[in-house]
Protein: Mevalonate kinase
Amino acid sequence: MNIKASAPGKLMLFGEHAVVYGYPCIVTTVSPRVYVEVEKTSGQFKIDAPQVKDLRFVEETVKQFCEKYKVDSKILIKTYSDFSSKFGLGSSSAVTVATVVALSKLYEIKISKKEIFDLGYKVILNVQGVGSGFDIATATYGGTIYFVTGGKIIEQLIVKGMHLVIGYSGTKADTSYIVKNLELRIHNSELEHRKIFEKISKIVEEAKISLVNADWKTTGELMNQNHKLLQELGVSTEKLDKMCQVAVNAGAFGAKLSGAGGGDCMISLVSEDKIKKVESSIINICGEVIHVNTNI
Ligand code: MEV
Structure:
């Protein structure tokens, strides 16, 4: 029998990096999904995943699942994706969560969302060595989430009418490298970095309210402030800064990088009538606009 499951990608709205150090973040799902199909075979464990460059997430998920639930791994797994892993939209976490869900269906094991999160987070830590688990939480729970490191708090937020224009900088970021590199720098000046994280954390708390109240002007200003603090952390790039600047000049409420920085994507919050103008401003400086729905 062939079993299917899928999970969505994500976009960080507020609080990246600080969330690795015990602070909250806000993250939302995007419409593109990663799909997983599993079936039992009589032979060895096999993966057919032409779009996945890094098979370690699928391999580690199968290993952890089979160990925890004491089932064998004589299975064939196929995965395919709506989106390229180059954008940093969370294809690794989505494939991890979709694999856990597919395996639980295949072996008819009842598994709670918290169990999916815990197993998925373990996989991320085993493979990457670092990470807050925010992406696993988003792929597991869906929607827009207020999240604290390691899943200490996972709170769903009701956000309606948010319009984001998303720009890809053209460079794939290496999240593990950027997170580990920041960790080294924090080692040398802990207090200074803690102060920045405290400020980011305050922004996240304010954004939690403004997002739910659909107060886009305040949310946009908070995005600009969050971006400045990410610049101070040294994780932005010239291209990301420029894309944020042109988006704001074209009428966006605010803009910031989204994710680890060092490349990947920026997001800008816009009113519906400004979407085209903001998109053009990003394209004009050679950014790539990615069309996805959010808060799925
Ligand atoms: C990367 O998309 C976001 C970081 O905060 C890392 C993490 O939370 O796992 C930089």
In short: The pocket of (R)-mevalonate is lined by residues 12, 16-17, 19-20, 131-132, 134, 175, 179, 259-260 (CB under 6 Å). The beta strands are 3-14, 24-40, 46-48, 75-81, 144-148, 153-157, 163-168, 254-258, 265-270, 288-290. The chain has a mean pLDDT of 96. The first strand starts at residue 3 and ends at 14.
